[in-house]
Amino acid sequence: MTAVEPLPGEPAAVADFGGERALVVADVHCGIETALRYERGVELASNADSRRERLLSLLDRSRADRLVVLGDLGHRIGDPRGDEREELETLVDAVTARVPLTLAKGNHDGGVAAAFGDRVEVTPGDGARFGDVGVLHGHTWPSEAVLSAETVCVGHEHPAVKLTDSVGGSRVEQAWLRGSLDSAAFAEGLGVDVSELEWNDPELVVFPAFNDRSGGTWVNVEGQGFLAPFLPEALVDGEAYLLDGTRLGDYRRV
């Protein structure tokens, strides 16, 4: 298989870590319903059980040796508590009873890393490399080690596309964003000379959010700003794909 292969119909992929098979997801945002209630006054029943069971089902389906979360395993930026803490405890226990869990630390994960660091492998904010695959959340510039990989996986953006039909109706669907990267943009962002980078012309894979209640960036709508500091400038030729594998082409022209 290719280094990173999406699972049809799911915001998840299987990655080859060089001798280890990983299930990779991004932006689980455990406890998001509590935040929506207090921050926006939106009352939603918790999907904690279904999120956990869905992850466990994907572990079975993918026959993975490891689960990798590309940041924002939790939703609260500070220490997790209440319903969020309970959801995280149950999820981490259920996953680690089967396989190791790696968290590419995201901007929402400071408290999660402190609370669960004894059971979860937590990478630095600028990511880590496993075999030919680099992983990070995407809220910071990736390390040079991550950029030396052949494939770079990020979350953070929650990419989606707004699709409009011939009579003006529209819908928003989660999407994958994939494309090649510009070495010069990263050299500038990291403050190094481009010749100093170990560059293997990596493909960027931007993961849709695992939590479909967490909103997203409409990548094909003008004026929608990207969140990652290297996007969209460092993305040379990004293409969008729906979760079912439908190729939409250049994300800017969808």
TrEMBL record:
Residues 21-139 form the Calcineurin-like phosphoesterase domain. InterPro entries: Calcineurin-like_PHP (IPR004843), Metallo-depent_PP-like (IPR029052), Pesterase_MJ0037-like (IPR024173). Pfam families: Metallophos. Gene3D superfamilies: 3.60.21.10. GO terms for molecular function: hydrolase activity. It comes from the Archaea. This is Putative phosphoesterase. It comes from Halogranum amylolyticum. The lineage of its organism: Archaea, Methanobacteriati, Methanobacteriota, Stenosarchaea group, Halobacteria.
